[in-house]
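quick q for whoever's on today - can somebody do inverse folding on this one?? i tried earlier but teh output was garbage lol. tokens:
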């Protein structure tokens, strides 16, 4: 029963896995690139008059 369902929906399963892997790879690469360009935080001080 499950085997038949997998055979019937093989194209959808492969497409889902492909999209999932590409988005995971994109997220991971973006995370790594952001860590390399980590700058000091911007500090806003209250101006006293």
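ok took a stab at it. sequence:
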């Amino acid at each position: 029963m499950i085997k038949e369902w997998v055979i019937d929906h093989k194209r959808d399963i492969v497409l889902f896995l492909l999209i999932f892997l590409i988005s995971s790879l994109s997220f991971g690469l973006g995370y790594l690139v952001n860590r390399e360009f980590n700058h000091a935080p911007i500090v806003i001080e209250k101006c006293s008059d």
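fwiw The mean pLDDT is 89. also The first helix runs from residue 2 to 8. so keep that in mind when u check it
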